Amino acid sequence: MGRNPRIEESGCNVMDVDRLTKLLEEVKTGETSIEEALMHLRDLPYEDIGFAKVDHHRTLRNGYPEVIYCPGKALDHILAIAERLRQRSAKVLATRAEESVAHALRQKFPDVRWNPQARIAVIPGTQTNEESIERKSGLVLVVSAGTADIPVAEEAVVTASEMGSSVERLYDVGVAGLHRLLDKRDKLFEANVLIVVAGMEGALASVVGGLVRQPVIAVPTSVGYGASFGGLAALLTMLNSCASGVSVMNIDNGFGAGYFAHMINR
C-alpha cells in the first residue's frame, strides 16, 4: 500500500498530539482505514536511516520534536536528518549551526530562518502554519550580564520563542553596574521565568534570584579571562548560589535553558 494523499493533505504526517488525535478520529469514523493508519504510523517510534535513528516519537513524549545538534556531524548527515524530521514535525531546530551549515540548509530548504548570533537554523515543517502557533501567555525574560554573553542568551531566546513562549530580552545589566538592572526591576517582576546568562564570576544569577520570586535558570558562559577557566568559575558560583529558586545549566547551554524555561512556562 502506498501513501494516502488525503492523510498527508490533512497534515497527519506531522506527529504531534493534535494531528495524531485527528488521525485516530478518522479511523473511528471510517474516513481512514486501520491499514492506512498503521502504514502511516510505521515509523512512529523511530526511523533507522543507517547512520542515525531519527526519533519521530519525541513530540508525543516530550512535547517538542528532536533537535539537531550540528557540531561533529557530517553535512550530508545533517541534511538527511533535517529532511526526515521536517516531514513529520511542525518545525526543525538545528543548533550550533555555523554559516556553512546554514547555507547548505538554505540550499535544500529555501524557507530556513537562521539566527547567526544564536547559531540556530529553524526549518519550517511541510505542514507548518506559523500564524497558528499558540503563544504561551507567561513571559520568559532572558537577562545577560554583558554583550559578550549575547550569543548564548540569543540561543535561549530563539529556543524558547520557537517552542511557543513569549520572550523578551534584557541585556548588558551585569553586576559591574547594578543600577542598570535595578532600573528594570519592574520587567524582572513581570516575567514568569527568568534566564540569567553571565560569564566572568557569574554573580548576576544570585542577584536576580535574590530579587524575584519566579524561578531563575542560570547559564554560565565561557566569557572571561584565564582564571575563569572557560566558564568553570561562573558555573561554580551559580551552583553555590545562596539565592533560592536558582537552577543551573551547563556552560554555554543556552538551548537547554530556553527549553527548560518553556517547560516551566507551559
Keywords:
39% helix; 11 strands; Rossmann fold; 266 residues; disordered N terminus; globular; four-stranded mixed beta sheet; 3 domains; alpha/beta
Give structural notes.
The protein is an alpha/beta fold and 266 residues long. It has 3 domains: 1-42, no CATH class; 43-129, no CATH class; 134-265, Rossmann fold, CATH 3.40.50.1970. It has 12 helices and 11 strands. It has helices at 5-9, 17-29, 34-40, 58-62, 75-88, 99-108, 150-163, 178-182, 185-190, 204-209, 232-239, 254-265; strands at 47-48, 53-54, 68-69, 91-95, 113-115, 120-124, 136-144, 165-170, 193-198, 216-220, 246-248. The chain has a 5-stranded parallel beta sheet. Strands 3-4-6-5 form a 4-stranded mixed beta sheet, with helices on both faces. The chain has a two-stranded antiparallel ribbon with strand order 1-2. Helix 7 links the parallel strand 7 and strand 8 (165-170). It is globular, with a radius of gyration of 21 Å. 41% of the residues are buried. The model is unreliable at 1-14 (pLDDT under 50).
